[in-house]
Inverse folding.
């Protein structure tokens, strides 16, 4: 596209920009507005320089937000380190047990308050509450091998070179390798699980629970998929910043995106047509989740089509459309000046909650499920007792360690566990 430009987080003019957050290199990302979606660098810092980015760079968002004070999630916390199938925790060590006595020492996967899941799909049982490792290096039973993975772009903040290097240094011989989806497919939970089932991956990353048909396909191949939550995320609703739009309830959002409400004056706003903007729910995890949870499986309105290709395009279209409204992972919205996030309520009499605190994600209200549209982020592990299972379980244990949850926090996502603020060792 003629007006697009790519940013990798490195100002080509050599200057320092106060608006940049984080101030570090990230994977090249295609932008259409005046600021980079990932780091906030202005267009002139990149375009006016002498260097250009490779045209083949992968357009995925790597969002990192400075560490906030740790948040406490008092419920649904499992204080254990995962063991492999056929092992159980004894005095803090994973040891093999006879298959007839096997009870997997992974915590029960509970559903998100706003999402449906099927705990019966997960082989698990709660164990001791004091077995999480403190540092990445202290995580036990990490095998040597190449852990191949792909999945939802919501996990992009956890794929930065800096994070991968921390893991590599903590466990020499354990290497994470991101795998591109097959030609014609975009990165998504759906594609990741398909590749995992087909034996192309060690684990996959998902922003929604495993679906019944996916579970069945795995079972037909004589293994189980286990979804293990490692973080919490929220979806932000945003509009054009030039108009005054009221707070919205979930039912009003549904009516907007299904075409029942078509003018902002029906909601107390200006006499202006509403233009809902969305990605194809068949082509991404966030629109699929939005359709299932917010629209309650109703179809998007005809006015939402043609669908935009990605979040960057949606941000640009809302910024250019006075009556536009769209949605995205909160960490992709909160640091934007081109659009305005709005507060959402479960109902008019229950209050409205903002997805952002200034330029940062509202992690406290996400963690406590006060914000209405939150979801858990899962690592999907293939339970077959082979090397890929070992590699996947090790990755989960590292992300659920104290250091791992700090990494989650610093990436702009919400940690599952209560942690002390600071940098991973």
């Amino acid at each position: 596209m003629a007006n697009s430009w790519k940013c990798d987080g490195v100002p080509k003019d050599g200057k320092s920009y106060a608006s940049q957050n984080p101030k570090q290199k990230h994977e090249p990302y295609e932008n259409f507005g005046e600021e980079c979606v990932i780091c906030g660098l202005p267009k002139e810092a990149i375009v006016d320089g002498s260097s250009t980015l490779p045209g083949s760079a992968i357009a995925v968002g790597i969002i990192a937000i400075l560490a906030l004070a740790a948040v406490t999630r008092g419920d649904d916390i499992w204080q254990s380190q995962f063991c492999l199938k056929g092992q159980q925790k004894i005095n803090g060590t994973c040891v093999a047990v006879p298959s007839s006595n096997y009870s997997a020492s992974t915590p029960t996967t509970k559903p998100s308050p706003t999402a449906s899941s099927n705990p019966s799909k997960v082989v698990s049982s709660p164990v001791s509450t004091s077995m999480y490792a403190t540092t990445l290096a202290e995580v036990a039973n990490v095998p040597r091998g190449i852990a191949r993975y792909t999945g939802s772009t919501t996990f992009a903040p956890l794929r930065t070179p800096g994070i991968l290097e921390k893991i590599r240094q903590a466990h020499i011989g354990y290497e994470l390798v991101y795998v591109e989806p097959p030609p014609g497919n975009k990165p998504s939970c759906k594609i990741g699980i398909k590749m995992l089932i087909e034996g192309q991956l060690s684990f996959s990353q998902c922003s929604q629970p495993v679906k019944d048909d996916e579970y069945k396909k795995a079972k037909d191949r004589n293994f189980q998929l286990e979804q293990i939550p490692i973080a919490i995320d929220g979806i932000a609703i945003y509009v054009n910043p030039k108009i005054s739009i009221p707070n919205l309830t979930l039912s009003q959002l549904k009516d907007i995106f299904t075409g029942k409400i078509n003018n902002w004056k029906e909601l107390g706003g200006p006499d202006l047509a509403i233009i809902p903007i969305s990605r194809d729910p068949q082509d991404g995890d966030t629109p699929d989740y939005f359709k299932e949870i917010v629209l309650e499986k109703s179809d998007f309105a005809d006015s939402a089509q043609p669908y935009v290709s990605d979040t960057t395009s949606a941000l640009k279209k809302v910024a250019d459309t006075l009556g536009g409204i769209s949605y995205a992972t909160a960490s992709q919205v909160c640091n934007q000046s081109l659009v305005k996030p709005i507060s959402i309520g479960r109902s008019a009499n229950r209050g409205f909650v903002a997805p952002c605190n200034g330029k940062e994600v509202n992690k406290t209200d996400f963690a406590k499920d006060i914000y209405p549209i939150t979801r858990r982020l899962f690592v999907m592990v293939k339970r077959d007792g082979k090397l890929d299972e070992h590699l996947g379980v090790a990755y989960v244990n590292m992300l659920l360690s104290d250091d791992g949850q700090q990494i989650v926090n610093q990436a702009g996502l919400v940690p599952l566990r209560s942690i002390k603020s600071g940098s991973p060792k």
The first strand starts at residue 5 and ends at 7. The chain is about 20% helix and 20% strand. Residues 317 and 332 are 15 Å apart (CA to CA). The longest helix spans residues 387-399.
